[in-house]
Specification:
alpha+beta, single chain, 27% helix, 5 helices, 4-stranded antiparallel sheet, 5-stranded antiparallel sheet
């Protein structure tokens, strides 16, 4: 048996679904399964200091594909049919027309440094970076105060010691679009910085 075939069998046995991401800003006809889409739109990184881990960051970009998959799952969970399901999808499309949103799941070694919801008083600088390299500062970063089990069900990357935030960014530049190949999220402080990248594939 060839190595390629063996890998394919393992992936099939694990039930893996590979989802390619498109950085277009159009609403998809069909996004795919929620867990696979969420995984495709989630990035994770760590920042280490001299002696310890400073920061662990996971972020899910709420793209059109993610919002479509999330709305479909919500409609299925609520057993919505017909017009009610259509209204739920329309609600998700309306949410997509607002600011860009990223769910940020932040774990810091020193819990006092987990303060993104303090606005300009936070020790962290957060910015969305478009294709041209322009930094877009958030309109707001608010704590997602839903129960941890709810957050983990929606975002599997949410860890046991993480704090969840919703970062909203203005549509000042074309963060997503037909000619966009990459979009980045930066987070930095006096202790260093990290960057997450979503690349079209």
């Amino acid at each position: 048996m060839s190595r390629a075939i063996a890998i394919a069998i393992v992936l099939a046995a694990c039930g893996g679904e590979t989802v390619s991401i498109s950085l277009h800003d159009e609403w998809p006809a069909k996004a795919g399964g929620y867990e696979a889409v969420t995984d495709a739109w989630t990035r994770t990184t760590d920042l280490r200091g001299e002696y310890q881990e400073v920061l662990s960051l996971s972020a899910t970009f709420k793209s059109p594909a993610w919002r479509e998959a999330h709305a479909e799952r919500d409609a299925a969970n609520r057993m919505l049919k017909g017009e009610q399901r259509t209204q739920r999808i329309a609600q998700a499309q309306a949410e997509m027309a607002g600011p860009w949103e990223i769910e940020m799941m932040v774990t810091t070694w020193d819990r006092r440094e987990n303060d993104l919801d303090r606005g300009n008083k936070s020790i962290w600088h957060v910015a969305l970076v478009d294709e041209a390299g322009n930094e877009i500062v958030p309109l707001e970063i608010v704590r997602d105060k839903r129960p941890n089990y709810t957050l983990h069900a929606e975002f599997p990357a949410f860890g046991d010691f993480a704090t969840a935030y919703i970062a909203r960014f203005p549509r000042t530049t074309a963060v997503l679009g037909p000619d966009v190949h990459a979009v980045r999220l930066r987070m930095s402080s006096e202790r260093g910085g990290v960057e997450l990248t979503w690349t079209a594939r």
